[in-house]
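Thread: Modeling a multi-component assembly for a lab meeting

Hi all, long-time lurker, first post. My supervisor asked me to bring a structural picture of a complex we are working on to next week's group meeting, and I have zero experience with this. I have the sequence lines for every component (378 residues in total). Could someone generate the structure of the whole assembly? Inputs are pasted exactly as I received them:
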Amino acid sequence: MIWGRLRAIWLRVWGWIKPFWTTVWRPSLHFSMGFLTLGGFIAGIIFWGGFNTAMEATNTEAFCTSCHEMNDNVFAELKTTIHYNNRSGVRAVCSDCHVPHNWTDKMGRKMQASKEVWGKIFGSIESREKFLDKRLELAKHEWARLKANDSLECRNCHQYDSMDLTRQSPRAGQIHQQYLGTGQKTCIDCHKGIAHHLPNMKGIPQG
Amino acid sequence: MRGLLLRALLPLIAAASLAACGSKHEETPRKAPDAPVVITAAGQIDGLRRGVPIDKEASPLPMARVENFDRIRPVNYEMQPPTIPHAIDNYQLTVNTNRCMLCHTRSAAKKFQAPPVSDAHYLTRDGKVLEQISSRRYFCVQCHVVQTDAEPLVGNRYEGLNTTLAKEEKQ
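Re: Modeling a multi-component assembly
Sure thing. I ran the full set together rather than chain by chain. Output:
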């Protein structure tokens, strides 16, 4: 009974697909081999470039802060920190810390980010109150991610091998050597809230 | 010969150690700034414009920097809240989190080689001992503050308790 129905559905769908399938499957009558291979190659470059350009566009600060959720909450907080405003003028934008630089990891993160589009559409953090209620959960995701990849996004700029501990304040130098140098701890273990305000940290280790 | 040298040096060594001891417990009184401080008719100290008329361009002193050398500063009187000898830029001290207590809590102080907050900070008003820091002591910077390298606006001859005591002992 059920198989009969499924078969009927498949035959119908095949009826739609069949003309395209036969066209694609047959050798070309009008276009030369060179046109098809070179054309395919060039089209590939254009599509790939377009894809990456679009990906890059979603990595810009302007894109991230185009939503009021980001602009009014986390971006406003970032502005007071050293990652936005400092003596040398080097600035970290959202994606520098929140999107992996490595391609495959980046694609994984971008797919995860579709959940954020969902959140935007259904307004899961549309008001300040909703955002504050959800902040701990969101922060925990980021801490877990940075903990799992050994603070990779921090280390894209801050490398332990290049840190001159003698130019840090004595306590910073000593603690970096003792915990970061030995690999006991990773950046995020102590530097939670480095760029944003913290949620209620009761029961969450910070150092 | 050697004994003689030692005897000659002894008062010097004693004086040096005494001075070192003194500096451990006292801040030396700071000198008054070079630029004259204008005291207005109302008795207010004009530290910012320094008497430059309002229609003239004033050249203010350079901005002071927070001292960040991590050595415990001496206190000037009994029960003085110790000053903070390091920068606390962007330390979050909110209802949600207290960055200071990351290192200065009793359990973590040894690990970070930080002075733990005193036992009095764990007492309620009624003298009950708490496990966590008392909420009336929670906002550290109400009493403990950083120090900058700014010159004092006016000189003062204040001497701390220990200096006074040392002087009395000498006499």
